[in-house]
TrEMBL record:
InterPro entries: HATPase_C_sf, HATPase_dom, His_kinase_dom, NatK-like_C. SUPFAM superfamilies: ATPase domain of HSP90 chaperone/DNA topoisomerase II/histidine kinase. Residues 290-428 form the Histidine kinase domain. The lineage of its organism: Bacteria, Bacillati, Bacillota, Clostridia, Eubacteriales. It holds the Pfam family HATPase_c_5. The chain crosses the membrane at residues 6-29, 36-55, 67-85, 92-113, 128-146, 158-179, 191-212. This is GHKL domain-containing protein.
Length: 429
């Protein structure tokens, strides 16, 4: 075997690393399909076939033939995996961007540093190993990001298609850059274009992630709002049940009187015990002249008692509130849920709810103990979290409702006391 042939075979290590990266990304993006039980194995076997064909026909590197070979490989291997056709094409696009950006950046940088044509970099052992490491590393990173993305994706297929327009242009530009500039020593303009495309794609991905996070947040808030609406309907139904029991109170007393007149003291005792339990389960503790508020606050008081949290209420007559029933439940439920959850971890576990009405506005203040002070930045809401101090995405729902009614809020956390105070105009702005 000649030295030239040996270097040619070593150059195909980059192809092997590249195809391995393709397989990792496709498996992370598409998963298993129904037709092929072991898609990664089939993709590896096809890579071996393409490797033999490349060596036998002396296809080489950084030319049109090698690009066509990789495109065919991508289009065929995605058939081994699952996913829809749109997802398969997206996987090909992701692999094309990853491979071209990585290889162009490394090879152009190496060629510029050595002052050699780009097509000659495969003759350097250090560059070959660097290319293999870069491509495999990029594949691992892309597969990890894709797996995480699949769990948290909020963009619709149409939005994803629009977002992929710019990366598609980058793929075409990288192919032109690879094929056209391979026979020349990279100039400063080539280097600027190579790194510029890489940075542009990274910025684009960052923007897409930000948009996806915002949409995911909105979906989460919407789901929570729907849940709160169902909770409001359940509370109202509970209040109606209580009203029916109150209406039937006279009938119950007549039945007890009849049992006592007949001397059936045991029967009267059993009847009274059953009646007491039923009334206790459906009686509200509060009396603010607002049926829904009474039911809601009573329920939260019982939940807090089960957790060992003391809740103190200071409330006026609330029969006229400047917001809808559903929005009212969203505000109070989220504030009390967060306060009770946080206070349950503190000592002593206490929550204070105070509300005041004037001719212009309603002022609501919820104050609770916390285990330790929260690090609030300029009075902003805490970051969304399902763990920790107990103040999660519910506060963001409260903020949206207050914004809807032209309300304002302030938050603070000092000396292990968390306070949320908001004002709601009596007339919707």
């Amino acid at each position: 075997m000649t030295k030239e042939m040996l270097w040619f075979l070593m150059g195909h290590l980059v192809c092997i690393g590249q195809w391995a990266a393709f397989i990792m990304v496709e498996y992370a993006f598409l998963g298993r399909g129904r037709r092929f039980r072991f898609p990664c194995l089939w993709a590896a076997l096809l890579a071996a076939v393409f490797l033999v064909a490349s060596i036998r026909h002396d296809i080489g590197f950084f030319n049109v033939e090698s690009v066509i070979l990789n495109v065919i490989y991508l289009l065929v291997t995605v058939l081994f995996f699952g996913g829809s056709w749109n997802q398969k094409l997206s996987a090909c696009l992701v692999n094309g961007i990853m491979c071209l950006l990585t290889e162009n950046t490394v090879s152009y940088t190496f060629a510029w540093y050595k002052h050699i044509p780009v097509r000659e970099v495969w003759r350097y052992r250090s560059c070959l190993f660097l290319l293999v490491a870069a491509v495999v590393g990029a594949g691992l990173l892309a597969a990890y990001i894709i797996r995480r993305w699949r769990r948290e994706q909020a963009l619709t297929p149409l939005q994803m298609l629009v977002m992929s327009f710019f990366p598609g242009i980058v793929v075409v530009l990288n192919i032109v850059l690879m094929v056209s500039g391979g026979s020349e020593v990279p100039s400063m303009m080539n280097m600027m274009l190579t790194f510029g495309l890489t940075i542009a794609v990274l910025i684009h991905l960052g923007i897409v992630q930000m948009v996806n996070d915002q949409m995911l947040l909105q979906q989460t808030l919407m789901v929570e709002a729907v849940r709160q609406k169902k909770s409001a309907e359940a509370l109202l139904e509970s209040y109606k049940t209580q009203r029916r029991l109150t209406h039937e109170f006279t009938n119950h007393t007549d039945a007890l009187a009849l049992l006592l007149q007949q001397g059936d003291y045991e029967g009267a005792k059993a009847y009274l015990s059953t009646l007491t339990k039923t009334i206790a389960a459906n009686t509200t503790i509060m009396n603010t002249h607002n049926p829904l508020l009474d039911a809601l606050l009573s329920k939260k008081y019982e939940e807090a008692s089960r957790k060992g949290v003391m809740v103190y209420f200071d409330l006026p007559d609330l029969r006229d509130m400047p917001m809808g029933q559903t929005d009212l439940v969203i505000v109070l439920s989220n504030l009390l849920n967060n306060a009770i959850e946080a206070a349950a971890q503190a000592d002593p576990p206490e929550v204070y709810v105070r509300m005041r009405k004037s001719e212009e506005e309603v002022v609501l203040s919820v104050r609770n103990r916390v285990k330790k002070d929260l690090n609030l930045v300029d009075g902003q809401l805490p970051r969304i979290s399902q763990k920790g101090a107990g103040h999660g995405f519910g506060l963001w729902n409260v903020r949206d409702v207050l914004k809807k009614y032209g309300g304002e809020y302030t938050i603070s956390c000092r000396e292990c006391w968390f306070r949320f105070t908001c004002t709601i105009p009596l007339r919707k702005l």
